[in-house]
Amino acid sequence: MSVSVVYKIPESVLVVIHTPAQEVLLIRRADAGTWQSVTGSKDHPAETWLETAIREVKEETGIDAQQPGCFLHDWGLENQYDIYPAWRWRYAPEVSRNTERVFGLRVPEKLPITLSPTEHTEWQWHSWQAAADQCFSPSNAEAILMLPRFLKPVG
Predict the structure, then answer these.
(1) 45/51 Cα distance (integer angstroms)
(2) CA distance 60 to 30
(3) In angstroms, rounded to a whole number, what is the distance separating the alpha carbons of residues 66 and 129?
(4) Sign of CA dihedral 112, 24, 14, 86
(5) Residue 13's closest CA among 72, 64, 68?
(6) Which DSSP helix (H) or strand (E) runs through 17?
(7) Low-confidence residues of the chain, pLDDT below 70?
(8) 16 touches 108 (CB < 8 A)
(9) Which residues fall within 8 angstroms of residue 12, CB to CB, at 6 or more apart?
(10) Tens digit of pLDDT for each residue in 78-118?
(11) Rounded to an integer, what distance in angstroms lies between the CA atom of residue 125 and that of residue 56?
């Protein structure tokens, strides 16, 4: 009997969820205890960046990114980085780098969050500067610091 191993796809999204007042949602990882924005890999190669972003936001926070009052914006930015050695086992043996597409999700106000308990333990809303300071990931902090330049007028 052969066992098929399913590896993670080295293509992921980073979604900075924020209010019009630039308050940013951070969630605490259950495995590492670090704070971050919503992140997650594609489920299959044909899944688009947008589909991945919508799915990951729903899975990790309970927020429907397509509900009225929400605005999901592809920032057109991609980060490429080395996968931390501790997580490489999740990927095919020849994979060592990940491509991360950055999105912003404006929500109308600080919404209540429904976490995926196997992935995250807490959530908090912070000013964008404080949120950037809390992030473990340099690319996540950098994305949050870019928030003001990506804000679009409401309406």
Answers:
(1) 11
(2) 12
(3) 26
(4) negative
(5) 72
(6) strand 11-18
(7) 1-2, 152-155
(8) no
(9) 39, 40, 41, 42, 52, 98, 99, 100, 101
(10) 999 999 898 899 999 999 999 999 999 999 999 999 999 89
(11) 18
